[in-house]
Amino acid sequence: MNRRNLLKSLGLSIGAAVISTEALASLGDNRYSYKIPENPLYKPMAKPVTAVSIGAGNRGSVYGNFAAKFPDQLKIVGVAEPIEFRNDRHATTHDIPAENRFMTWEDVFKRPKFADAVIIATPDNMHYEPCMKALAMGYDILLEKPIAPTEKECRDILELAHKTGRIVAVCHVLRYAPYFVKMKELIAQGAIGEVISVQHFEPIEHTHMAHSYVRGNWHNSKETTPIILAKSCHDLDIIKWVINKPSKQIIAMGDLKWFRKENAPEGSTARCTDGCKVERECPYSAIKEYHDRRSRTKVLDLPADKSKHSEAIMDRLRTTNYGRCVYRMENDQPDHYITSIMFGDGVTANFSMEAFTSYHGRRTRVMGSMGDMVGDMDELEVTDFRTRKSVKFIPKAEDVEGYKNSGHGGGDWLMVRDFVQAVAQQNPSLLTSTIDESIESHIMGFMAEESRKKGKVMNIKMPKIPA
């Protein structure tokens, strides 16, 4: 097998012939880059799929920007967004007529069905009702994770999706990232023998934790969803997906240890802008994060004129939660969380979510009977116990333009691309994250949170998927 043919084979989809580490190592180079090829089930489209964006914030813009980049595949024909700045921005980007611009999701459904699909990218606690209404009206749906804040609501959506026959694609975008696609492919091919156990780690990164889960929209689990779902349902899902075994039991522990009032430094104030005496040395200073570094400012809805950004940022820090002291918020989300899972055939997995790291990017170790895998989303190293040789797989994937640090390894737009084809062909099998496939990891998340609060092992009971 010559190098050209071998490198070509590395791009094959799941189900390709087994490529042994010994065969790769014999070529004298143990690093191979690869791309995920286009799905062979794709068909030419006579016209783009049309969609209404319900929610035009960060995630709504990520999915909407696919349409701006590929107008022959997806066209955004309507938007529902109560924040005027975001509504205007989305309407301008997609040339949405005035009659298709709405302030609330309810307004969208007062009109007869006028698009093929809806993209639901509202806050977590506003997924259920628009999703149920969209299904009842015959829309296909691209649904941001988590599916819904409660297990019952998730099961309701699953049941109605089957009753109406509509497609519900859950935005478990890691399933589409070339890194995880290759991991699953190699495991399925037996590259490390039988999988015995998995260790998976999500380092949130300390300022990201402060941004999203202390100051941000997800700071209070009662108003949104528990952090195991809001942040880490991606991780529970990807563990389950690559192992490809049913989950049986789960146990979890975790707490909010640091971001508490009793840990506020002497001299600190309610806001970083209130003359805080320790602001310059605080690692969580909102002024340093948003104003000085210009980091994560998309949530601040800054004006198009960059000369006005400095003034606008300081105004937001004086008036919104993003300027409040991290020790004085109404936050209740754990800042460290561990969970252990028993899967079918005796496979075990451990997952750790940690706020206090200087880095982000998921890390995974998979232990098998004939080899192991170690990866960090930038590369995946596979070692064969029999030959003691290793091969490194380097995924080539572009992250979404303008969102280079999404942490999703290019999965965002690859997911939208599959969704568009699935809707155009009315074939949900083009997706790997339909609600049928995604609901199990959500139930794992609900059970983990119950385990954390009750201090006991929880049995995982999956809903019966309608035929």
What does this protein structure show overall?
It comes from Rufibacter roseus. Keywords: Signal. Residues 184-458 form the Gfo/Idh/MocA-like oxidoreductase C-terminal domain. Residues 53-171 form the Gfo/Idh/MocA-like oxidoreductase N-terminal domain. With 467 residues, the protein is α/β, with parallel strands linked by helices. Among the domains are: 3-32, no CATH class; 193-260 and 331-401 and 438-459, 2-Layer Sandwich (Dihydrodipicolinate Reductase, domain 2); 262-323, no CATH class. The chain contains 15 helices and 16 strands. The protein has helices at 3-10, 21-25, 58-69, 84-94, 105-108, 128-136, 151-164, 178-188, 206-214, 227-230, 233-243, 286-292, 309-319, 411-425, 435-454, and strands at 31-34, 49-54, 74-80, 101-102, 117-120, 140-143, 168-170, 195-203, 247-255, 336-343, 348-354, 363-368, 371-375, 380-384, 389-395, 458-459. The strands form 2 sheets. Strands 1-15-14-13-12-8-11-10-9-16 form a 10-stranded mixed beta sheet. A 6-stranded parallel beta sheet has the order 4-3-2-5-6-7, with helices on both faces. α3 (58-69) links the parallel β2 (49-54) and β3. α7 (151-164) packs antiparallel against α15 (435-454) and α12 (286-292) packs antiparallel against α13 (309-319). The two termini are 44 Å apart.
